[in-house]
């Protein structure tokens, strides 16, 4: 069965200053499939993932050459709205990065930033996402407590729920299980 290409890297190079971290990456990522990048530590897997949703743009002195495509459209162009791109291409990092907000607000954050105002929809998405991340049962009675009080593994599952709540077209996960508790 043939699957259409959702994302692609075409002759992608990435630089930290003068250091070329990625060279001539060509990769097609099929729609509705899990694609895993496997390689030794320091080989550029995380850097490549961050190129896909332009998180590397936040690092001073970096540059990208070549193309990153989402549904055939080049996304590494200055005119593209990176907030909209990151809504479509979510990311969960290796280390949890909860916001200094309540558990509920951590998951609802992206929805609110995206302009969602319907409280019932937000509540439904928060619950659905926490269930999907395997965290709801543990936090359902303390959704308004600080997310910073959660264990490391719970914080990681919270970050997964936050990413899933936006229903992204692509979900990038950079070693997401490395910080999980054994119960997860």
Describe the protein's architecture and organization.
With 184 residues, the protein is an alpha+beta fold. It has 2 domains: 5-78, Rossmann fold; 103-179, no CATH class. Helices cover 32% and strands 23% of the residues. It is built from 6 helices and 6 strands, in the order ββαββαβααααβ. The chain has helices spanning 45-52, 82-88, 103-113, 119-132, 136-139, 152-165, and strands spanning 5-16, 19-30, 62-70, 73-74, 89-92, 170-173. A hairpin with a 2-residue loop joins strand 1 and strand 2 (19-30). Helix 3 (103-113) runs parallel beside helix 6 (152-165) and helix 4 packs across helix 6. The longest helix has 14 residues, at 119-132. It is globular, with a radius of gyration of 17 Å.
User: Strand count, sense and closure of the main sheet?
Assistant: 4 strands, antiparallel
- Measured as a percent range, the helix fraction is 25-40%
- Strand portion, in percent? 15-25%
Order of secondary-structure elements = EEHEEHEHHHHE
Total discrete domains: 2
Q: Kindly, what is the distance between the CA atoms of the first and last residues, rounded to a whole number of angstroms?
A: 33 Å
Q: What's the overall geometry?
A: globular
Low confidence ranges = none
